Each structure stands twice: as structure tokens, then as C-alpha cells.
Amino acid sequence: MSTSEPAFRLDAVTVLYGRTPAVQDVTLDIRSGGVTALLGASGCGKSTLLRSLNRLNDLVPDARLAGRITFDGQDIHAPDVDLVSLRRRVGMVFQRPTVIPASIRENIAFGPRLAKRDVDDALIEGALTRANLWPEVTGHLDDPASGLSGGQQQRLSIARCLALEPEVLLMDEPTASLDPQATAAVEDLIASLAQEMTIVLVTHSLGQAERLADDVVFMAAEPDAAGERRGVVVEHGPAQTLFHAPRDPRTAEYLGRTSP
Amino acid sequence: MNVDPVRTGVALVLLFAAAIAVMTLGGIRHRADLAVAAGRALVQLIAVALVIAWIFTHPEGAVVYLSIMVVAATWTAHRRIGGDRRDFLALLGAIALGAAATVAIVSVTGALSFTAQALLPFSAQMIGGAMTTAILAGMRLRDDVRDNIDLFAVYVSLGATYRQAGQQFATRAAQRALVPTLDQTRSAGLVTLPGAFVGMLLGGATPLQAAQVQLLVLIGLLLVQSITALLTTRWIDPLPDDLGRNVALPEGAS
Ligand SMILES: Nc1ncnc2c1ncn2[C@@H]1O[C@H](COP(=O)(O)OP(=O)(O)O)[C@@H](O)[C@H]1O
Ligand SMILES: [Mg+2]
């Protein structure tokens, strides 16, 4: 994909669970390369929006989407879209580290093997190295992944995605269940990966967004005319602008600063 | 063995009346259910007896009879598990192949003679066993997917199709579906006298003959059920019906 084009374009995207919209009328471009943070309080639809980008919401009962999302110029809801290829190109790291109940090696090998790619030691080592996990697991590749600490499991989840050489990593509050030290390790990893790929990072931590984000999408849950709360995008732009000169008073309020 | 219809009738009426009396005395309701159940058993068994009697004189009818049984077993399993036409075909294949493999072995070896009298009841029992296992295995698979939807989502996010993601749960679901049969096989003769054994004894066979046939049935069931459980969990759609596989809304709808 060319770096000047956005990775994703969202056009009037509304996601409903049953009849309740969780995310309403979102139109924005997500940059290619670097970190775009989806920032906002709990329940404002960040995860919902994120899961829409690799169509993982398809698994949620009664979730439906209106509007249009393109990835690399292709409508991801087109009838002929190859969902498997989309999900290989757009990897996902979940909020709770979820390892495959098998060895560390099997966790890395799962995706490439399904993709009929060669799974050799170099691939395993390469993915674990990129995820800053290699030194901690050398010699233990055939141990069960469930024996790793939470922070290690989360980096294993990242390594597992990297083994597929994705262009994008979607990360849903990847440090929410980690202690400060493990959080720092994962944040360092995100910063280094952002040099070579597109990362969309959901976070409700202002500090994390400030440390990592190039662009910020600030979301909030707003009551509509009927009083129902649905997530909207309040403001979207470069992190510098959004943090230091927010245009919207709601952003300023969330930042705890007065708008200029 | 001599079965006198009049004496049998008298015994049945007494058994039924005694059951009703016990239930009434014990304050257990469902007396109507008992009557319906007994009535159904009466009509069904006599009908089946007439059909099978006809087949014993027209053995080519056995093929038709067993085919109908396989379809009925599939239909029942499909109704219990739920799913679409493809799932129906998956269950049909799983049940038919499991039963066919087992029947083939006992008839090719000559363990049971190649007659309707021997193969029809044996096949019927294998088909019944296959149905039970298909239901158990299918329900286990979908329950496991539902209970581990986070892990399922991990597989899907790594480029697995829903079916490939479901495969990851298949072996365990199949294994668990075999537990009741393994228990039954292990306890055969200790906790209960199994049906074929009892039937053979009542029919006048020696206990050793009865044991042989019962073993064919039990070990046969192990094979049927292994095959059916493995095929069912690999072939049916692993996603429960209430889980999403949604498509985008049409333009402009919301
Ligand atoms: N699977 C679901 N079914 C129904 N409603 C859901 C589901 N997931 C999230 N929601 C609702 O959608 C809204 C947005 O949720 P979510 O996207 O998880 O927000 P966030 O990630 O910002 O906390 C919330 O009101 C939540 O209750
Ligand atoms: Mg969330």
C-alpha cells in the first residue's frame, strides 16, 4: 500500500448491537504507518470501531454495520471480499491476553501454517525477536504458552500476529491487564513496531496516547434525541494538535485543560 | 421361545395399572404422560414388528428400512443441534459412514450371518448409537465454541475460517461425546445387563452366545461413535446459530 494513502477510510459508519447504535456516523481516515490512538472513556465504542476494521464484529451476535469501510482502497464489506486475507493483513491483539492452549512455538506457527507458509525456526525466532520476547523464551519454545506471565503472553500475542507479516495491527487496550513494568515493555514494542507498520491502538489512558500516538481519534458517548447513548467521534487529528490545542470543548474537558 | 399374546396382554395391563397406582399413591403427577408413553410404545413396537416381519420375508426391504432409519436419525440430530442444509448433509454423512463401517466389519467377518434377521437389528442399533453421538458431539462443539468465543476470535483473527477455528475445538468435543459410551462399555454386565444380552437370553440363547452378541454391539458402538463423533465435529458448522455471521446493512439503512 502506498504510504501517502490512508490505511482505512471510514464513511458514515454506524455499528448497531440489535437496534442500539454503539457507534454513530463515523467518517474519518486512518493514516498509514505510525500509531493512531482511539481514545475515550469506557463504553464510547472504541472496541466496537476497532473490531469493525477486520470485521471481527461479525462474530458478535446481532452486530450490524451501516456505511462503508475501505482498507487499502477496497470495500471490506464487498460481497467478494476475502475475509481470511483481510484478517491476515490486519492483525489483532486483544485486551485480555489469550494464548492458544499449546506451546509457544505452536502459537507462532498457527497463522503461517494455515496460510500454507513454511514454518521454520527462523520464522519462529524472527517473530519472537520482533516482539521483544526472544531472550525470555529461548530454549522454552515447546513449553506451554499458558505458563508465561501476562505481559509475556501479550507480547506472544503480538508475535503471533507478526508471524503473518501484517500491514496493520489493531490493539484493543493491550496493556489494560498488565502491571506497570509489563506495560512499559509492551509500549516500547508498540513504538518500535510503529516504525514499520500501521497501528490502531484503543486506549482509555491519556498518558499512553500521549506517549505513543501520532494521530488521535477522540471518542465520547453522547445521548441522542431519545436519550440513548451512542459513541461518536468528537475530534480527530495529529496528537500534537489534539493534546495541545483541542478544538472541541469536550476534548478539552477530557484532557482537563481549558480550550483556547 | 414361546410368547403367549394373551398372557403378555394380561401382564402388560397389570404392570401398567401397578405403575399408575404407585404414581397415584406417591402423589407423582404425569399419569397422563405415562399413559401416552405406554400407548406410543405399544403402537410403535407393534408397527415395527409388523414391518420387520415383512422384511424378514422380503430381505431387499431391509435396505429401504435402514435408509429411512438413517434419514430419521439425521433429521432428529439436525433438529436437536440446529443448522442449515449443509449441516444436515454433514450429519447424514457422519451417521451413515459410522454405521456402515461397523456393519461392514461384522458382516464381512461373518460374525453375524448375512441375513436380515441378524443384520437389521444390529444395524438399527448402530444407527441409533450414531445418532446419540452426533447430537452429543455437535452440541458439545457448539457449547465449547460459545464458552470460548475469545479463543475462537483469536483463531479467526489469525486467518482461520470459522470452520478451521472450529476444528481447534473438534477433537476435544468428540472425545467428550464418547464418554457415556465408554462408561457404558466399562460397566457392561456389572451395573446393568445390556439390552442385547437380555434379549438373547429371553430368546433362548445361551449366556455365552448372548455375551458374544452383546460384545459385538458394544464394541461396534465404540467404532460407530468414534467415527460419527469425529466426522460430526469436523463437518458441521461450529458456530452456534445465535452467534453472528452478519453482513453489512444495505446502504442507507440504520
Ligand atoms: N457484544 C455486545 N453486545 C451488545 N452491546 C455491546 C456489545 N459490545 C459492546 N456493546 C455496547 O456497545 C457500547 C460500546 O462498547 P465498546 O465498543 O466495548 O466500548 P469501549 O471499547 O469504548 O469501552 C457499550 O454501550 C456496550 O455496552
Ligand atoms: Mg473496549
Name of the CATH superfamily of one domain in chain A: P-loop containing nucleotide triphosphate hydrolases
Number of strands of chain B: 0
Q: What's the pLDDT, averaged over the residues of chain B?
A: 89
Tally of helical runs of chain A: 10
Strand-pairing-aware structural class of chain B: mainly alpha
Question: Are there runs of chain B of 5+ residues with pLDDT below 50, and where?
Answer: 248-254
CATH-derived architecture of one domain in chain A: 3-Layer(aba) Sandwich
**Uncertain stretches of 5 or more adjacent residues of chain A:** none
Distance between the termini of chain A: 38 Å
Q: With helices defined by DSSP (H or I, 4 residues minimum), what is the helix count of chain B?
A: 10
User: Radius of gyration of chain B over alpha carbons?
Assistant: 22 Å
Q: SSE string of chain A, helix = H, strand = E?
A: EEEHEEHEHHHHEHEHEEHH
Calculate Rg of chain A over CA atoms: 18 Å
Shape type of chain A:
globular
Q: At the first level of CATH, what is the class of one domain in chain A?
A: Alpha Beta
Largest sheet of chain B: none
What portion of the residues of chain A fall into strands of 2 or more residues? 25-35%
Would you give an account of this structure?
The complex is a heterodimer of chains A (260) and B (254). Chain A is α/β, with parallel strands linked by helices and 260 residues long. Chain A has a domain of 178 residues: Rossmann fold (3-Layer(aba) Sandwich), CATH 3.40.50. Helix content of chain A is 33%, strand content 28%. In chain A, the strands form two sheets. A six-stranded mixed sheet of chain A has the order 6-7-8-3-9-10, with helices on both faces. In chain A, a hairpin with a 2-residue loop joins strand 1 and strand 2. Chain A is globular, with a radius of gyration of 18 Å. Chain B is an all-alpha fold. Chain B folds into two domains: 57 residues; 185 residues, no CATH class. Chain B contains ten helices and no strands. In chain B, helix 9 runs antiparallel to helix 10. Chain B is globular, with a radius of gyration of 22 Å. Chains A and B meet through strand 4, helix 2, helix 3 and helix 6 of A and helix 6 of B. Bound molecules: adenosine-5'-diphosphate (ADP) and magnesium ion.
